[in-house]
Every structure is written in C-alpha cells, then in structure tokens.
Amino acid sequence: MSKPKILILGAGYGGLMTTVRLTKELSNEDADITLVNKHNYHYESTWLHEVSAGTIHHDKARVLIKNVINTNRVNFVQDSVREIKKDEKKVILKNGELTYDYLVIALGFESATFGIKGLDEYAFAMRSINTARRIREHIDYQFANYNNDKNATPEQLAIVVGGGGFSGIELLGELVNRVPQLCREYDIDPTLVKITNVEGAPSILPGFDPELVTYAKNYLESKGVQFKLNTFIKEVTPGSVKMQTKGSEELEEIKAGTIIWTGGVKANSIVENSGFETNRSKVPVKGDLRAPDDDSVFVVGDCALIMNEESGRPYPPTAQIALQEANVIARNIKHVLKNEPTETFVYKSKGTVASLGHSDAIGVVFGDKKLKGKAAATMKKVIDDRSLFLQGGVGLLLKKGKFKPF
Ligand code: FAD
Ligand code: NAD
User: Taking Cα atoms as reference points, which of 354, 385, 351 lies closest to residue 372?
Assistant: First the structure.
C-alpha cells in the first residue's frame, strides 16, 4: 500500500515548524512529506522592518530551507503555488502540480489595502525579503540622489509610514536609527528629513497598554517622528499621501519620496480564490485546526482564523501563534494517520514585545509584567533567538542569533 502524502504549502513560521515537527512525530514509513515554498530560503517575517530600514542585512533574516529540514525525510519543492483544487486534492504550481492526502496551508500574509486608491501602485509594503530589500534600496537611493541631482528637494527625503500598529511602530524604531547614518553617509543635514506616521485611530498601537504606548510615542517623537493620529490615508499618488483627519472635511497632503504602508494584513488570497470557506480572508478553522469544510486540510498561521472566546475577537496574526499551531497540526496529522482522536488547539500567549530600534522596546510579558527600554530590548532579542532555536535548533541560533550587545 502506498504511504499517505502530506503536502505543506509555505515555509514561513507555520509551514517550516509543521514540517520540522512532522519529521519528529512520524517515521519514514508513516507518510511521504513534501514542502513547497516560493524560494529556497525561509525568512524571518518578524525581522522585515529591520531589513526594510537597512539596519540588518537581508541575509541575516533568511536561511536556506535545506539547512533546517531533514532532506532525507522531506521532499522540498521550490515553486509558487497558484491554486488549490480541493475537490481533486491537487495543488497547481507555476511549474507543475502535486496531489495530497493531507494538506497544510501555510501561505502567510499579504498586505491589506482596503481598496485605498494608489496604495498598491505607489506605496511599499513589507511582505517578504524582496519587498523589504526594495524599500531599503529605495530609501538609500533617495539619500544618494539628494546631493547629486540639482532638482532634488527635501520632500524626496521624507518618509511616510501609513499605519501605527506594531509593524509601523517597529519600522519607525529602525528608521530613527538608520536615517542619521544615511545623513552622515551622504552629507545631508538631518533636519531636512521628515518622518511621519499616519494612524487612523486616536492612538498608535490601538488597544495596547496605554503607559507603554505613551513611552513609545514619546521615544519616537524625541527622535523626530511626527504623528498624525485620528487620520486616515485616503489616497496615495506618486510621491504624495492624501489623508483626512476625523471631523475635517478637507483632504491634507504630505509629499514624500518614500511611502510605506503598514495599515494591516490579510491571508494569502490563494485561500479565498481556491474556494475555501473564509471569514475576513482567513479560514475559520475548527478546534483541531482543520478547515470547516474539508477534513483533509489543516490551516496554520496568518491563513487561519481562531476566535478568542474571552474577547469575542480573533487572535491577532502573529508568529507566536503560528508556531504553537504548527506543533498541534503535526500531532493532529499523526493522530489522524493512527485513527486517534485529534487535539484541540489552545493558545497560550507569552506576551507581546515590540522593538523601538536596536536598543529600546516595549512589552508586556508573563501575564502582566510591563517592560520598557533596554530590558524590553533584551527580551525582544531573547524572543527572536528562541524562535530561531525552535525552528532550527542550536545550529540556526548560532548562525543567525541576535547576540550583539547594545
Ligand atoms: P509567513 O511567515 O508569511 O510565511 C509564508 C511563507 O509562504 C513564506 O515563506 C512565503 O514565501 C511562502 N509563500 C507565500 N506565497 C506563496 C506561494 N504562492 N507559493 C509558495 N510559497 C508561498 N509576530 C510575532 O509573533 N512577533 C513579532 O515580533 C512580529 N513582528 C512582525 C514584524 C513585521 C514587520 C511583520 C510584517 C510581522 C510581524 N509579526 C510578528 C507577524 C508574523 O510575522 C506573522 O504572523 C507570521 O509571519 C505568520 O507566519 P506564517 O507562517 O503564517 O506566514
Ligand atoms: P495592524 O492591523 O496590527 O495595524 C494596522 C494599523 O493601521 C492599525 O493601527 C490601523 O488603525 C491603522 N490603519 C488602518 N487603515 C488605516 C488608514 N487608512 N490610515 C491610517 N491608518 C490606518 O497591522 P500590522 O501592524 O501590520 O500587524 C500585523 C500583525 O502582525 C498583527 O497581528 C500584529 O500583532 C503582528 N505584529 C506583531 C509584532 C510584535 O509582536 N512585535 C510586530 C509587528 C506585527
């Protein structure tokens, strides 16, 4: 009898961790495991703000997949998923197709643009190593160009970050470190460079601890960031952002050479386009992390929607929850193969820590312990290093770990 075929789509936190755990849960005789990913490397999505600002090299944030998985046990296919034909248990790739008995959808996030005019065309988004690298190179170019183009204006040095959630704030934290370096490198007066954050809510990091939010805002303001709160981006044109403050009829415009959108994320649109039942673009998975309409399909990470029964809202999409889900999916696939009852996923939050550049941060950990400054920055590095350890053991930690002192 042929072995059951397990197919994992995407090698981000959810997909890579599911693969690594499956090779531990199952023996070679239990199943054939195939992992498909667009690139031959896995990247740390949680470090994309650093790659985008240029405060770390992009190679620091990625690792060859073959160096993390057991290639004797896992067939790795580098290809792009185009469509999942669930009725035929088949996945269409750019260069072929694969069939499965059990599928794990781990295709991650896309930027949510809410139909805002011009965002897709004229704003950058941090979605992958390549999009982050493009942001860094674009900012570098604006600075390199400034003193060499007689028509250049300070507006070309201006940076607007749209959205003051965790991605936007972490990016600003990196930018306030990087911009002074760029000014020194290209002989530019730092007072010419305007960095603006536009956030629709009355405060940055809506819903997060107010004391820590104030700390983050004061810190970034002290480094020159200007905040426009209660203000929604309505349109982006080449080199300008049009926005509206609550209560005002007028559209205000900021001209900027670099516009980066961090206003939200959604699940990879392949999921919706493949006909799965979705809610807010994600699959509202059952307790054991299977799709509600297909028992052979598991969904992990940013493609899955899990409700927090306490708050009545979905858990936010994070690497933390993706890694925990992956463990349960690997065990549940084993249970299904062995005709055992599956486990119900229970999320155990370890807290939230957001960096404000290399040596500052804010966070709430161990339930209600608040951290800020260097203590929080140390905790953030510990979290990043722990995630590397979980994915690739000591080898990956030693290669890519964040050990540099402040
Ligand atoms: P991803 O990590 O996005 O992985 C998806 C994988 O699928 C990628 O390898 C991608 O290349 C591949 N893929 C996509 N499309 C295709 C295709 N068509 N064919 C083949 N392969 C494909 N969360 C935290 O918990 N802590 C943090 O500190 C944190 N910081 C963040 C900072 C930033 C700047 C951002 C943007 C997010 C951050 N997050 C953080 C959120 C976290 O990164 C995501 O929740 C997490 O990456 C989701 O994991 P995933 O496995 O679902 O998807
Ligand atoms: P988000 O949805 O958390 O934040 C988007 C922000 O943009 C919100 O504050 C929203 O009010 C604002 N916004 C939306 N539309 C707008 C508009 N038209 N104009 C102005 N502002 C607008 O998205 P994110 O920050 O990209 O985070 C995505 C996920 O990744 C979240 O779950 C987050 O928790 C997670 N994340 C976690 C960390 C961390 O733990 N350190 C870091 C980054 C991201």
Answer: 354
Report the C-alpha gap between 139 and 147 in whole angstroms.
Answer: 14
CA distance 265 to 277: 19
Both tokens of 237, joined, read 């044109």
For ligand 1, whether the C-beta of 391 sits within 6 Å is no
Closest CA to 397 of 40, 68, 39, 47: 68
223: DSSP letter:
T
pTM across the whole model: 0.97
Atom of ligand 2 nearest to the CA of 363: 41
Cα–Cα distance between 146 and 121 in angstroms, integer?
Answer: 23
Q: Kindly give the number of the ligand 2 atom that is closest to the alpha carbon of 262.
A: 26
CATH of domain 5-111+266-355+377-400: 3.50.50.100
Instruction: Tell me if 165 CB under 6 Å of ligand 1.
Output: no
Task: Split the chain (406 residues) into runs of 10 and give each run's mean pLDDT.
Answer: 94 98 96 98 97 97 95 97 98 98 98 97 98 98 96 97 98 98 98 98 97 98 98 98 96 98 98 96 98 97 96 95 98 98 96 96 95 95 90 88 78
Distance 229 CA to ligand 2 centre (A): 14
CATH architecture of 119-263: 3-Layer(bba) Sandwich (3.50)
